[in-house]
């Protein structure tokens, strides 16, 4: 019992980025424990998902072809049966809406200790050390689980996605689903709060914070996003003020993003916001305060007034700054 089982996450036909991050986290545990790395994908286009999950270091991929979308009862039954068959030492799931839905139920059925929202994992001599953040990410704590088998969910954006081309064995796992125990079904989806944009898929984000001062000044940053081909996002105060829709919010209470470039304009860098964007490949910050926390994680920083810096950037990219 030294193997690791990770559970892929998908939504509306797309495999989510955290699935590949799970493979990295699970691979580290498998190396530390000396076991194999297994991946499971339940429901949806499992054959296509399995191809995407076949990355370097993955030993086996198990598919459960039942239904199209996430269903709590199906996931609980499938994972309980799969874990009973494989007897993995570790079950690793995403700390996503879906993962948080089924993981406690699975852990309870399997009588495993469960630790959620891990940002780091370390396994040595039978003890799993889980690093978590508390009090709005202001405090980092460690939880030692001295006896396995274990169940843990990991926060997205904390591990790099698994890379390379693998040669995993792919097999269909047949689950005798108890239909009477499936008490809900997905009937459809309804976009809420301006769902026209998914900032978590963006490669370049221009993000605005309190420094914009007034709603009418948003036009300036919108122009910058337009001339650079970026997607507009924001910190929580902009959404709380009703200036942008909820789907534009980056942070602990918004979305976690991992773009190639994250341009933070007028954002101080509160821990709640940083938790949602610190995994960005390149972070550029513009702020008048040289001691703003955002500069602690920025790769490049400009200490200056956004109302001077942004128009200059717009002109540099061939645009005409609006009057504000």
Question: Which sheet architecture does the biggest sheet show?
Answer: 7 strands, parallel
Kindly report the spatial arrangement of strands forming the biggest sheet. Answer: 7-11-6-1-4-5-12
Shape: elongated
Average pLDDT over all residues? 92
H and E order: EEEHEHEHEHEEEEEEEHEHEHEHEH
Work out the number of β strands.
Answer: 17
As a percent range, the share of helical residues equals 25-40%
Number of domains: 2
How many DSSP helices?
9
CATH class designation of the largest domain: Alpha Beta
Q: Report how far apart the termini are.
A: 64 Å
Query: In the CATH scheme, what's the topology name of the largest domain?
Result: Rossmann fold
Tell me what portion of residues adopts beta-strand conformation: 25-35%
In the CATH hierarchy, what is the superfamily of the largest domain? HUPs
- Helix-strand makeup class: alpha/beta
Instruction: Examine the secondary-structure arrangement and name the CATH architecture of the largest domain.
Output: 3-Layer(aba) Sandwich
**Spans of at least 5 consecutive residues with low confidence:** none
What is the radius of gyration computed over CA atoms, rounded to a whole number of angstroms? Answer: 22 Å
